[in-house]
Design a protein that fits this description.
Layout lengths: L5 E5 L2 H12 L2 E2 L7 E5 L5 E6 L11 E4 L3 H13 L8 E2 L3 E7 L3 E6 L1
Parallel strand pairs: 1-4, 5-8
Antiparallel strand pairs: 2-3, 3-4, 6-7, 7-8
GO molecular function: dioxygenase activity; lyase activity
Protein name: Catechol 2,3-dioxygenase-like lactoylglutathione lyase family enzyme
Keywords: Dioxygenase, Lyase, Oxidoreductase
């Protein structure tokens, strides 16, 4: 059995989709709109974003983007910080990792 897709409820579909495209190499399926869109990655992940007025995920809820190296984690972190996003620097935990609040109201972990 294969997990087919994950749906996230977000406050701003276009902004969240653009963020995922720019920093995490997701590709948006044609036909998305302000209320719903579908994103894909090169490994078959299907991530859908659905509009809501409010988003309230549990404190520990997040999605993760594993990277091939610690250097790649650092590169993504530096790009985000240079573009004005705020996140604590990567640190050694269960992996070399950092978390960032994504536009739309959900948390992303970047790790290697």
């Amino acid at each position: 059995m294969i997990l087919n897709h994950v749906n996230l409820t977000v406050t701003d579909v276009p902004t969240a989709a653009a963020f995922l495209e720019k920093y995490f190499d997701m590709r948006q399926h044609e036909g998305g709109n302000k209320g719903f869109t579908v994103l894909f990655d090169d490994r078959g992940l299907v991530l859908t974003l659905m509009k809501a007025r409010e988003v309230s995920y549990p404190k520990t809820f997040h999605i993760g983007f594993g990277q091939e190296s610690e250097e790649r984690v650092n590169e993504i972190y530096q790009r985000l910080i240079a573009d004005g996003y705020q996140a604590d620097p990567p640190q050694r935990s269960h992996a070399w990792t950092f978390y960032i609040q994504a536009p739309g109201g959900f948390t992303i972990e970047v790790l290697a």
